[in-house]
Prior knowledge:
This protein is 79% helix and 0% strand.
Amino acid sequence: MSDILFYLNEGVNHILDLSALDHLYFIISFCLLYTFKDWRKLLGLVTAFTLGHCLTLFLSGLELVSINSDLVETLIPITILISCLNNYWLIFKDKSSNQSLGITYGILLAFGLIHGLGFSNYIKMMLFDDESIVLPLLGFNIGIELAQLIIIALFLGVMALLSLIMTQLKWVRLTVNSIIVLLVLLMMFG
């Protein structure tokens, strides 16, 4: 039991690590347009994302998939920028049109695959020689999921507090989205 707790703790710490803010930016970017009343959708979306990176972690841990780490490090911020561009579109679009939730799930699953490749070297470093990959991946991904849910709950809490003092959160969402875009561009080119 202590082994799974070790890997669970590693997953939580990996997401909450302030030196790896790209994951925080991505989580906030995909939950930016939701509120607490959408918690079931968000739970499904964050789980789709986790399943995506769990799959690539598993495949890369078994050495069935290997992609150049420089390419992965370029693709991760691009996924954040795409999420932010989607937010701009959803904020300014005609309210009568809807983006299919199924499309959003598919996008987050695909982005999870890319982000999982970013974790693959980290998880390989954590494994001991001849250690099964199942327990470490299970604990690590449960930790990642818990940390993501903590971030989402805190962010939605802040947005709920802001909604008490502001009648329109559109400009707050646009501002946060734009800050994420700027931070990601600085991360890529700074």
